[in-house]
Amino acid sequence: MDLNPDAYDGVVAGQGTTNVDFNANMRAALAQVRDGESVGLAVGKEDVTLLRGMEQVIERKVPLPVRWLKGFVEVQAYQSRMAKCAEIGKVETLRFLRSLPRSTTAKSVFWAVPAGSGLRLSQRELPGGVRLAGLERLRLLEELAPLADSLRVFTDPRGEASEWQLRFGPLAFHLTLTAEVWRGFSGEGQVLGELATKERDKILAQVRGLLKWQAELRPEEFAVNWDVQPETVRLALAALGSRGLVGFDISRGAYFHRELPFDLDAVEDLHPRLAGARKLIEQGGVRLLQQTPRLTIAEVAGSGVTHRVRLTSDCATCTCPWHAKHQGKRGPCKHVLAAQIFNNLDNEKSS
Amino acid sequence: MRNPLDQAKLETILRTANPAAVARFFRGASEADREKLAPTVKAWNQRLERNWRAQFDRKVSEQVKSEGAMGDWYALMPVAYLAALACLTLAQIKSIHIANRPNPVMIAEVLRDRRPDWLDEYAAYMCGKDVHRWTILDWKLVRQLVRDGLCQPPTLDNYVLGAIEGIKPPSNWRENLQRKDAGLPPLPVTSLVELLLAERDWIDFAFWRLFEIEGTSEVSLANGEKYSKGESWTTAIIELSQRGVLSRERLLDSSLAALNRDFIQFRAGWFSHFHEAMTPTIAEREQRLPAYFQLLGSAIPPTVTFALKAVQVLDKEKPIAGVQLARHLESVLSARSKTAVTGALQLLDRAARREPGFSKPAARMAALALLHESPEVQEKALVFLEKHGGAEDSELRDKLAEVGEHVTPSLRKRLSALLGVSAKPEASPDQPANPPKSDPLKQKTRLDPADAIPPIATLDELILAASAMMESPDRPMEIERVVDGLSRLGTEHPADFERRVGPLRKRTLKRRDDKQGSYPRHPKLDRALAMLLLTWMDGKDGFTEDAISLAGGQNHFAFLFRRLKALGNSLSQQQSLPLLSAPTHGGGWIDPVVLVTRWQEWQKAGVEPNFHEQVLALLRLAPENRKTALREARSITGEGGEALRLALGADVKTGKNAALWLAAWRCRQPQGDLPEFEKAHPKLGPDAGTAASYQWKASGKRSQHGDLSWTTFEIQFSTSPECIETVGDALLPVLMHGKWNSYVEGAKPLLRWAATLWPGQREVFFARGIKLLAASLNYADVNDRDICAFLEPLAEPHTEMKPMATLALALGLAAEDAALRGHAQEGLIAAIGQARLDVSALAGVMSELLATGINKFARWGKTLREVARVSPMHTRQVAELLTQSLKGDPTEGPRDIHALLELLVELQAETGTTLNDPQARQYVQGIKTGGRTAKLVKKLLS
Asked: Where are chain A's structural domains?
């Protein structure tokens, strides 16, 4: 939920990240809030407090499970690649959300496609369509729809995630969905490539040094100051995102500074594939067969077999079952990562 | 002085099923003496647990065998657990799994004697586990301990929830059965009221928290009410209230407070029903009006309806001020529930009639109800606005302008009149309902470059594509790419070939050997593909089953598997040539010019193409480019060349090989009889010389079981001529009618592939799905995601909407499963958009299906509404479709015919047409019913 300054009366005393669970008492209190009521929300370093008349409900900060941390990081990686594909008004929003079938199997796949000034569900992949499985997740928005002004829909180019944004004047409610109901964001592997890039990049260090809780971080502005390409700065921001140091605001189309409670030294350990890749390199499991500016072919040790990895500027392939099944949509496999890291190290040695 | 405890005596007691003996044994013993026996008791409990686990854990079973299995472990468990309670630490006790627990009274006795300092913790532990319907003994145990003063009542939720099932005495079903056999009445049952009164301290301490704790999917007041036998908690609580044990005021307030707690709908429902069961008086309701108002904003629709009813009841007796209603009804007017919205309108109407000054604010609020998707609700809102609103109210005009174009077409004129503006003209009725039949030649070509299938070019690409295919073989054109790639590149074995295919081999071996145990007749596509790949990688035959075994019968799947085997043979013989039947374009089509080129390559290599390949290649020939291809095909020799030329349009005498010539003829003439072929090869089955024709009859079958009765939809379906007993294994058009195990779970990839075998004629493909689609009307199940494969081709631009396609479409549009309906919907949308739909034919089918009286066909109302929204042309076509389907005897029609009539009313309003069709008018006139349907009939006939 995003609240712009116009959405509340109050004072922002500082910036930070506070993670809480909303338990039964808080949920019960929130369920009783009605239109026209005056409600206060205080977010502090250690807790979140709901103030409603004489009633006060406090939720204390809790440790954030690792899976959630990873999920947040993956979400911003997807968001940074998403583009808006639909925006519909109040009535069409209500009509679309109320047309969602009440029961489907979790494996049924639909596409939300443009239909006149609104959206409809289709069983076919049509131009402008947004892939959806597990429609019951989207029905979460149905209760909010009567209050919304509009619905914006974003999707990433490969249709692996979508974001559904209900707008209520200065407030926006974001629902980000993976392509399948059984896929949580934590296992999506979208940041593995960035994590594999070691912090030797001067630009990355410079960008990190300038983070001051900015609501918008625009690569072009940094690039002008340092005489580098905006794409270089964007990659640095993506790398910082993989470490939980920036998030992506899809409405503004920009990164923002936030700090997830990651132990940065341990962040790589949270990604088994990356750890596996580094182990493969340490064990001498990577051999380069061909290395040109456009194509690198490597052999990477597997379990009793040797995998063949091909790296080009825009794609990577591997002969392992993970890649065969997901075709890179859930991030690179450990063999591709190992080949990428090894290749980069080799290039650095040569240069 | 007491003797120390005798271990040998304990071991003897542990081997009995005598709980009292355990209690006696440990009575009065010191902690030090008890501790000495702890290892023995712990080991014994662990051994009993192993015997329990051995039932389902193979490893443990081996261990139990080696140490000696115990046949009576279940009977010995209660004694063992009592011994554990008597001498183990709490941590040790917690580690014991109790499959057969002792009586709570005995447990209490043992613990009373020992009085360990951890009893509160033990009680909390027993309440801390997940509560299930079978954990009632945990609650009983804790209650025993609390009643005996051995521990404090736990504050955990399960101490409260556990009572719902736990308070009931153990079932005496065995004894009652014996008594019944003996002609005796069942044992008397203690009432829930009496049971609760016996737990008075629990009532005082914990009962009220039942209104604060939601419960779980297994244990809650709502579950208890719905699923448990015996007396209901609602009745018992009300009686306790009447006896003065429970405060009525507090019950009324607590039930309302519970509804505010964000419980899920099912569990919240108990509290609203309970509240009403208390029959609150007007005075009690008046006192609680703020709470009812609060609940009008609930996210749970039945809670809103409940609160609304309460307000309505009160408003009738003690009118509520309009201003007060206005503050709370706004959210209700945007609700999804029709009852809620119309209820809110009624309240506002009464208030506006009482207070003329409230009319304008009420009208502005009522405008929200126009957002509802039901035309019935919108009409009620409009009636309200006509009564209480006016064009002079600029605020109202602004609100109506916002929603105006979304108002259902039949009401737009009235809305415009209300606003004092002239209505926008609806679509001209002069536009033809049926778009002009499009020229087939101007339709999208089957050989559109955008649909071309790029062939695999390198070994690496082949390995990657084959690996992806093995993970999910659900895209037929990808399978064809790989198979074609093998055919052309399969003999490329560079020095590091073994290493490069190593990962694929590992995966493929596993897949081939995975026999999917319980469905031996299920077609096994992934195993067949694995066998082909192993043949390629190993250079020798990797097929471990024959085609019929893989396919579950002599059918078109067996044809496909034979084709794979034949390719395997070619690879074994080091032949590397383009696959004759590989599609060049999506949908399974082959460019004739390309086919001729391929055939020439085979001829040049001196190799006769595999027979199954020839047959399939012919059936896949696209109609385009045939003349050009024919010119080039003159050089192809042999019977295959002759057949090819026939297929391409030459005048050639039918030859000896029935399968080959049938394929050639059916390529040239997919529909109708083939007299010349029939003369040369008579009586080979449906779609050989005699075209298949399909007969079907739909009906509703009534069933009854006890008080329940229901009607299921059935379809009797047959094909003629009948399939002959032994069909040639390459006679593909006939094979497609062959026997197969129609249990389709997991068969979607193969079904999709089957749709590409004869793309020029899909009637037989659709025919195979009719019975499955018919069953899908009655229930949704896991097979539906595979049955979808029968509907997918309906959306393809070159699928002809012949009788079976049309029937499949009509059935799909009424399926129970939303995804199945969605596929049918897409098929209809595409067919209309591409001018493939024969409205009369589909209407005819719909008319026959309506005459079964099966109510499921009212689902067409929803699916056709979505189709109609796509474009003005779709709107007109759907309107015409509905009109033409209203034929025959209306008394045989479904009960919910109003769903179709309502849609027709709206579509006619939108298209500016009326019901002119005489047969349709006659049908509608014959619908004799009241209520909403009668109103719709009146509108249609006016």
From this structure: 2-60, 81-187, 192-263, 271-350
Mutate which of B406, B510, B820 to test chain A, going by most A C-beta atoms within 10 A? B406
Encode pLDDT of B275-330 as tens digits: 999 999 999 999 999 999 999 999 899 999 999 999 999 999 999 999 999 989 99
Q: Which of B467, B475, B788 to mutate to test the interface with A (most CBs of A within 10 A)?
A: B467
Alpha helices in B799-871, H assignment, sequence order: 803-812, 818-833, 839-850, 860-868
Q: State pLDDT tens for residues B747-791.
A: 888 899 999 999 999 999 999 999 999 999 998 888 888 899 999
CATH architecture classification, A192-263 = Orthogonal Bundle (1.10)
**Contact status, residue B766 vs residue B808, Cβ threshold 8 Å:** yes
A113 CB near a chain B CB, below 8 Å?
no
pTM, whole model, 2 decimals?
Answer: 0.85
Q: Rounded to an integer, what distance in angstroms lies between the CA atom of residue B11 and that of residue B376?
A: 78
Burial B499-537 (b: 16+ CB within 10 A, else e): ebbbbbbebbbebbeeeeeeeeebbbbbbbbbbbbbbbb
Interface test mutation site (partner A, options B303, B748, B826, max chain A beta carbons within 10 A): B826
| Cα-Cα-Cα-Cα dihedral sign, residues A180, A185, A190, A196 | negative
Cross-chain CB nearest to B294 (options A34, A320, A327): A34
Structurally, at CATH architecture level, domain A81-187 sits in Roll (3.10)
CA distance B731 to B716: 26
pLDDT of residue B770: 95
* Pairwise CA distance, residues A26 & A50, whole Å: 8
Helices (H) and strands (E) in chain A, counts: 10, 17
Enumerate the residues of chain B whose CB falls inside 8 A of the CB of residue A124: 795, 826
Same fold, A81-187 and A192-263: no
Q: Does A290 touch chain B (CB under 8 A)?
A: no
Answer yes or no: do B260 and A28 touch at CB < 8 A: yes
Here the ipTM equals 0.87
Residue contact B297–A121, C-beta within 8 A: no
- End-to-end alpha-carbon separation of chain A, Å? 47
Please name the residues in contact with B905: beta carbons below 8 A apart, sequence gap of 6 or more: B375, B410, B936, B939, B940
Chain A stretch 194-233, residues whose beta carbon is closer than 8 A to a beta carbon of chain B: none
Across B708-732, b (16+ Cβ under 10 Å) vs e yields: eeebbbbbebebebebbeebbbbbb
